[in-house]
Amino acid sequence: MIIYPSIDKLLEKVPSRYSLAVLAAKRAHELEAGDLKMLSDYKSDKSVGKALEEIAAGDVIIDPKSKMLERDAEKLDHKD
């Protein structure tokens, strides 16, 4: 089974795995809450998969002015 999108493609769009996890989770919550979908067609049925597809497409990005995502990723990093 091939997982789409690949982690390599996703890491071209997001600087770290931790930031990717936080960004995908936040976007998945938005989709679950009824936020507008950014793509017309998704391969995944689940909100996390849809969020990852949007990130891979470049439709969901990290706001460079926002430090919230960076802080959330640092919290994940320090739990190891």
TrEMBL record:
Pfam families in the record: RNA_pol_Rpb6
GO biological process: DNA-templated transcription
Catalytic activity annotation: RNA(n) + a ribonucleoside 5'-triphosphate = RNA(n+1) + diphosphate
EC number: 2.7.7.6
GO cellular component, one term: DNA-directed RNA polymerase complex
Keyword Transcription: yes
Gene Ontology molecular functions: DNA binding; DNA-directed RNA polymerase activity
Keywords for the protein's UniProt record, in alphabetical order: DNA-directed RNA polymerase, Nucleotidyltransferase, Transcription, Transferase
Stated family: Belongs to the RNA polymerase subunit omega family.
Subunit comment: The RNAP catalytic core consists of 2 alpha, 1 beta, 1 beta' and 1 omega subunit. When a sigma factor is associated with the core the holoenzyme is formed, which can initiate transcription.
Functional description taken from the UniProt entry: Promotes RNA polymerase assembly. Latches the N- and C-terminal regions of the beta' subunit thereby facilitating its interaction with the beta and alpha subunits.
Full protein name: DNA-directed RNA polymerase subunit omega
Taxonomic source organism: Lacticaseibacillus rhamnosus (strain LMS2-1)
